[in-house]
Automatic annotation (TrEMBL), chain A:
Keywords for the protein's UniProt record, in alphabetical order: ATP synthesis, CF(1), Ion transport, Membrane, Transport
GO cellular component: proton-transporting ATP synthase complex
Recorded family membership: Belongs to the ATPase epsilon chain family.
Record-linked Pfam families: ATP-synt_DE_N
Main localisation: membrane
Record-linked InterPro entries: ATP_synth_F1_dsu/esu, ATP_synth_F1_dsu/esu_N, ATPsynth_dsu/esu_N
Protein's name in the database: Unannotated protein
Keyword set includes Transport: yes
Keyword ATP-binding (UniProt): no
PANTHER family, alphabetized: ATP SYNTHASE DELTA/EPSILON CHAIN, ATP SYNTHASE EPSILON CHAIN, CHLOROPLASTIC
Membrane topology per record: Peripheral membrane protein
Species for this entry: freshwater metagenome
GO molecular function: proton-transporting ATP synthase activity, rotational mechanism
From TrEMBL, chain B:
Entry protein name: Unannotated protein
Membrane topology: Peripheral membrane protein
Recorded GO CC terms: proton-transporting ATP synthase complex
Keyword field contains Transit peptide: no
GO MF term list: proton-transporting ATP synthase activity, rotational mechanism
Species in which this protein is naturally found: freshwater metagenome
Pfam families xrefs: ATP-synt
Main location: membrane
Length: 135, 302
């Protein structure tokens, strides 16, 4: 079976590169699943978790903010303003950031955005723990 | 010790301590330069992919928004100057300011009023001293710019760009920065960010970096226009970010070079002064001997 060549790139560094069996990401129109042989697609991504199932090894979850995905001939490139591997996410810190942002109130767009970012991070961290149990 | 000799020795000491400082600054600039260069390299994959995606979106969607097409009657243009916060980097900042002045003059000739957006304390100081109106300025991060800094700048110029011209908006955005070619060569460049000159840029980039010139028939989600609209602000941010990174690398390279020549000059000066000091000492000894001989002679003949 063919496989996907995936690269996840943030503005200042490469986050994850490797072969994968499938990818699930969130677009403004709903979730998109990409398998090998998918038609070329260029789509925006909403802030959320991108789940990658590598050819070898356990699943990878990446918290992505402000990004898009480009896919052609089994090359998938996910670009994001910021992206964090779930294993790099400090759950305590994210939780604290979320509490802090919520405490700051819902009036300021900055606090809302911060809360949203923290939530996505926590989700990404949770996604891997959950899939780890299934494996 | 004679007065002259003492003066020479004092000057040698002072030049020596200056040399120590410039040498240290040279070393610091070298190590920061390496880091800055690494950051430039780390940002390349994103830039390449972003350009590719935008080119694909532009070549598919036939509609051209305000971001891509030029305005007929240009009134105002934003000029972003990227200079350094600190001096002692040779002609680094003044070269940018000079180029900026050239651009300002050119714009005025064409009947366009330049609005000044300044990055780095050096350009801010220059414009403040001449009491010119500054549209916006940012300082404090030029040697280690982050993406957040670039986003702040991009947001400000983008806001001005989106305002109608009648309400003080700008029709064009120009960027003046120092492009880092290699350790020895950095050149000041002027680029227009908006309206985007994507097609030429991306074609050149495409033939250079990508093996395929024809883009696959992408399925755009939600639509090519929406994708392009979302990507263009990213493109502006990314362009400013890249310029900031390149400018930082150039700044460190310029400072390293300036400090190296300062150290070399100090060395040269120390050598000359040492020679003069030796001469003064010798002259002093000669004089003492002739005084003694003269004294003895006078005694003998008395």
């Amino acid at each position: 079976m063919s496989e996907l060549n995936v690269s996840v790139v943030a503005v200042d560094r490469s986050i994850w590169v490797g072969p994968a069996k499938s990818i699930v990401a969130k677009t403004p129109e709903g979730e998109i699943g990409i398998l090998p042989g998918h038609e070329p697609v260029l789509s925006l991504l909403v802030n959320g978790v991108v789940r990658i199932e590598p050819t070898e090894g356990s699943k990878v979850a990446i918290a992505v903010h402000g990004g898009f995905v480009a896919m052609d001939s089994d090359n998938v490139r996910i670009l994001a303003e910021t992206a964090e591997l779930s294993s790099d996410i400090d759950v305590d810190r994210a939780q604290k950031a979320l509490d802090r942002a919520r405490a700051a109130g819902e009036d300021s767009p900055e606090a809302l955005a911060a809360a949203h970012r923290a939530e996505t991070r926590l989700k990404a961290a949770a996604a891997v723990t959950a899939s780890g149990m299934h494996n | 010790m004679g007065a002259q000799l003492r003066v020479y020795r004092r000057r040698i000491k002072s030049v020596q301590s200056t040399k120590k400082i410039t040498k240290a600054m040279e070393l610091i600039a070298s190590s920061r330069f390496v880091k800055a260069q690494q950051r430039v390299e780390a940002s390349l994959p994103y830039t390449q992919e972003l350009l590719r995606a935008i080119s694909a979106a532009v070549s598919h969607g036939n509609s051209k928004g305000a971001l891509v097409s030029e305005v007929e009657n240009r009134k105002r243009a934003a000029v972003i100057l990227i200079t350094s916060d600190r001096g002692l980097a040779g002609a680094y900042s003044s070269a940018i300011i000079k180029e900026g002045e050239g651009l300002n003059a050119l714009l005025k000739e064409e009947g366009v009023t330049p609005e000044h957006y300044l990055v780095g304390r050096k350009s801010v100081g220059y414009y403040k001293f001449r009491e010119r109106k500054i549209a916006n300025s940012w300082t404090g991060f030029t040697d280690q710019p982050t993406y957040e800094d670039a986003k702040r700048i991009a947001a400000a110029v983008f806001e001005a760009f989106n305002l109608p011209t009648a309400e003080g908006g700008v029709d064009e955005i120009h960027l003046v920065y120092t492009h880092f070619v290699n350790m020895a060569v950095q050149e000041v460049r002027v680029r227009r960010i908006l309206p985007v000159e994507i097609l030429e840029v991306s074609k050149a980039e495409a033939s250079e970096k990508l093996d395929t010139k024809v883009f696959p028939l992408y399925d755009f989600e939600p639509s090519p226009e929406a994708v392009l609209e979302a990507l263009l602000p990213r493109y502006v941010e990314n362009m400013i970010y890249t310029a900031l990174l390149l400018a930082a690398a150039s700044e460190h390279a310029a400072r390293r070079r300036a400090m190296k020549s300062a150290s070399d000059n100090a060395e040269e000066l120390i050598r000359t002064l040492a020679r003069q000091a030796n001469q003064a000492r010798q002259a002093e000894i000669t004089q003492e001997i002739s005084e003694i001989v003269g004294g003895a002679d006078a005694l003998a003949s008395a």
